[in-house]
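Bit of a strange request maybe. I'm writing a small parser for structure token strings and I need a real example to test against, not something I typed by hand. Could someone generate the tokens for this chain?
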Amino acid sequence: PQAQHKLMQTGLTSFPEQALPEQITITQAGAKMPVWPALKDDGKSVAVVFADSGDEAKGLTRDGLLRLYRIALNEQVKHLGKTLPSMRKAELLFAAIGKAPSLREQVFAKAIESVFLQGQWPTNHEAFKKSLELRGDLPAAVEYIIGIVIQVLSSNQAIRKQLKGQLNLAWANVYQDVGGQLESLVSSEFVAQTPLAVMSDLPRYMKAIDHRLTRFAQQLPKENAWVQELRDWQQRYLQAQKRCLPYSPMAIALQDFYWQLQEYRVSLFAQQLGTKHPVSSKRLLKQWQEIESLG
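Reply from user aminoacidic:
Good idea to test on real output. This should exercise your parser:
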């Protein structure tokens, strides 16, 4: 029944001619129900689909718009990919965790998001076309993202070398915790998975790990207690993640909590680097209670 609605389309490579309303009511199996039209990324094209909530429509449309911009800017993006020396450097560092084409696409998507999706999103064909006037800002945005990526990957490489050194068994807990944090922060999809607003914080999180490794041996009992506390939070977070729906208020709150945990780590292990906002175990607990009320 959904596919019969006039708004529904597939195989789009530019913004649909008909403007997308925020919400409509459709009749399905004789019952009226509200749906939220959204642009869904299908890989090489975009489809108009009906989401079950405003949050889901927003999440889908963000990715759908990124795909449409990527298609519209293809020539410029290809040129940037070939001509930026910093891209080569980033790709070499990334080779330890993933493939160069994947990194390029992640960097371009993040740069496109920073240029085109920071203000009001286009909701019709004309607005989308007009927004492309901002394309001149794309090279600087790509350079900025690559700069962060190079810092993060260089730190990752250096920290992993330290972890490969001769292991004192008394340090196993700490090394395991740091290894797990690195796998989570610097995965092969880390550019895509890190929200734009958090990208600039990644080098600070890496510095905090580096600082921790220079001094943890002097305070092992404290470190082991913190590792246990962080493990408990990690388990709670992962269990909650399994039972929450993508794009739901709970999913959004959980993502925010994940980055709060990174700030908490900075406050524990490298206080002098400063945190983005006040963070403590008490604040984490309060935030967690709010998340549980959503689920």
